[in-house]
Amino acid sequence: MNDSLNDGGVIQALSDLRRNIDDIDDKIVSLLADRQQVVSRVAAVKKAHNLPVYHPAREEDLISRLRQQARNAGLNPDCIEEVYRTIIHRSRIEQTSQLALKGIRPGGVVLIVGGRGGMGGFFRNCFHRAGYEVRILGSGDWPNAASLCAHADMVMISVPIDVACRVIRDISPFLRPGTVLCDITSIKTQPLAAMLAAYAGPVVGLHPLFGPSTSSLDKQVIVATSGRDEHACQWILDQFTAWGGIIVPSDAKEHDDIMAIVQALRHFATFAFGQFLNRQRISLARTLEFSSPIYRLELGMVGRLFAQDSSLYSEIIFASPERRELLRDFLTSLNENRDMLERGDKDLFQEEFRKIAEWFGPFSEQAMRESTFLIEKLTERF
């Protein structure tokens, strides 16, 4: 053992310093508790005035100020930002949990068609916690459709894509004037058209861009496509905002065109990659032993797809003729690279690479930063 470690003075000095660190840590925890009490008061004000939890400009101003303060104090600004991003996230979660009890329309009646499914169950719990009367209409409840629809302020359609339009036509005759009719399917053109054709009252199309396992609406995106009587539908959007959600307005065609890329193409490409690995009989465990963090992250996204319900993804991928046409174009694009591979044409590859990099533009730098952050987190975790 090093003689210096046997020196009683050194041991005492380390002990004193560690006690100082413990005292500082105690003060940090105490200050965080004080901060959380103030956050609770902020949540109470927001709840009383129907203000949103998420205030992006305020958060970014705070982070910028703290980064500069860290530099002035000789601290790593990236480290301080990471610490405060965590603190701010927890603050939003606490605010959202308080605002989850806030109903924009106290005592309102919400009927969820398909409310025993995943997303229907998620929103059933949200509205129930906020004090709404929540009713459920499942496949065996149609004989009671009239009574379930009575006095409903909103009827939400939460059923698979392939039956959504039929369900919309079936439920519409039971709706009273003024009831808001909405759907939460992942395509918007056909369901929105079906709602407008079948029902003369307020209509809005919604698409939550998250799954039922989500624990909070904090910063979760919900796309809203206007149908009819926006003023009458606004309370629903305000409710999601009060719970911490972010409303992104769109028309139905724009939504479906973008979702064809964001969902259908991405899921199909992931499916094809997993299918190829399976057919090659790749040893996943062995590849992970050789893997870089980025490969593990990519493989994790592939594995995530196959850990879920195949029917959900088949509905998304094959939702419309337009999506299937896009996927045929994707396969054609892949086949166009066959000649380049057979010739071993590195020059053509590099030329195409440069064109694509130029098209991606500044996003490439953003992608590097974000993916590096994820990789570092993955490395820390595993």
Summarize the structure.
By secondary structure, the protein is an alpha/beta fold.
Describe what you observe in this structure:
- It contains 16 helices and 7 strands.
- It is α/β, with parallel strands linked by helices.
- It has 3 domains: 3-99, Chorismate Mutase Domain, subunit A, CATH 1.20.59; 109-250, Rossmann fold, CATH 3.40.50; 255-381, 6-phosphogluconate dehydrogenase C-terminal fold.
- It has a 7-stranded mixed beta sheet, sandwiched between helices.
Number of helices: 16
Q: On the 0-100 scale, what is the average pLDDT? A: 90
What is the CATH fold-level name of the largest domain? Rossmann fold
Which bin fits the share of residues in helices? 55-70%
Supply the CATH superfamily name of the largest domain: NAD(P)-binding Rossmann-like Domain
Tally of extended strands?
7
Order of helices and strands: HHHEHEHEHEHEEHEHHHHHHHH
Q: Major sheet, described briefly? A: 7 strands, mixed
Shape: globular
Provide the CATH architecture of the largest domain. 3-Layer(aba) Sandwich
| Strands ordered across the widest β-sheet | 2-1-3-4-5-6-7
Return the domain count: 3
Strand content: 5-15%
